[in-house]
Design a protein that fits this description.
six-stranded antiparallel beta sheet; about 525 residues; alpha+beta; about 60% helix; five-stranded antiparallel beta sheet
Length: about 525
Amino acid sequence: MVTRTTAFLPPRDIPARNSAETDATKLAAGKFGLTFRLRVVLFVALTFLSAVPVLILDGWVQHSSMQKEIESVSEKHLIIANNLSAALSRYAEDVREGFKAVVLHTQTRSETTRAFDGFLHALGFEDLCIIDSFNQVKLTIFGDVPADGPLPIGASVMSELREIAFAAAGKAVFTHLIMDGDRGRLFVVQQLDEGRVALGEIRLNYIRSIQRTISFGKHGHSMIVDDWGRVMAHADPDWENEFKSASRVPVVRKMMAGETGVARFFSPPMRADMIAGYTSVPETGWGVMVPQPISELVDRAGDSQKIAILISVIGIVIASFIGWLLANYLARPIVAVEKAAGAVAAGRLDTEVDPLPKHIPVELHSLAASFDQMVDGLRRRDEELRVAMIQAEEASRSKSEFLAYMSHELQSPLFGIVNLSESMKDELYGPMNNSTYLKSATDIHRSGRHVLDLIRDVLDMAKIESGRFVAEFEDVDVPQVAQFCLDMVRNRAVQRNIKLVSDISDKFPPLRADGRMVKQILLNYLSNAVKFTP
């Protein structure tokens, strides 16, 4: 059973131009979802393409300005740290050489003198004396330490000083900060003969005065620690007065190891991330660091960043303005073509693209000309299709009339064959002694009936095309129809060595349907099954 559909061209009613454009826009929106105007798309694209380089340049300027600040500060801080280290080296060397000279002079003369008081005071000595093996003051060279008595220092401190002196084997050396209660004390010691030790305490005034000369920005400062990482001079009074240990700070450990460089770290007293140049004093092992909060570098770089942002904003505004003008310039011809296309889509085939400005790209002029040529072609094809449609309708009517005529002419002889075979099958004129003849008569009758059904199918096709087909519903005996169809294809199945079996219950209820259609469908299935089964 074949169903055919015929396409009809729309009537030649011409809707309004605005309605056509609206319908085309709605159709595009329904097909593609959210839609945008071409000039908006071009404006956004051009603005984006011009803004991206500006933003990239702005980011590069901001990053570059920060990097330059870091490089500049790193270099300056390291120079300051090295200069501070050099000053402390000279000071430590002066203190040590002055200490050695005074001690040597005193030992040679075996007497005390006040001639060195000004010199030792200038070097920062608090006092200087010689103690014997019993830690008794044998000779006071400078200061108020009473002779022939014990040194006013704790026993554990005295023991530690003696160990340092003996470990230096006769050399004058600086000690680390010795904690005597809550007081940090710095000494120069030297081992002498007969278990004696020359011992001088150094005030931290000079070291701290040098530290205070380094101050820059809001919180830029310097820091000096001893060879154990204990703070001797710091911008934070608490850390300085309490002689806190900073040995856990990574950059301080690097100073204690004698390294020189630039590092970033978190400063506990400042509670901020810092960048610092650091080094050490070779003569004493002291560490010198010049840190500054990174936030101050960010603030200084902010001026350059503000200028870069301002330039970027101005650049984007200019690019957006130029992009909008260029988008309108490029979109105007395409919008004209789009309006004409909407009118054509609504059936107005006499539409042409509105005249375009002269100063537009050649490709857009070519687009408009090609569109007009396309509309001319559509107009010609429309007329050709209308003529072809009329011819097709006439041919369809002729075909239907021919099929009706032929079906009528074929039915007359087939009715004779069917009636004659039915008389033979029913043995109307007497019995047929040969069962083979009787079966042949039955097959002739069935085949004739089937051909009649096919002729009716041809007529039905004509009715379907004309829209006048009506199904003839009846009670269909499914086992009987199935057996009939099996008998019709059995000979072909035997030739292909295929066995056909019907397994339908006799109690299968009648099927309410068009019997001829059911029979035709089942025969089509069986024919294909026999044909394509190996």
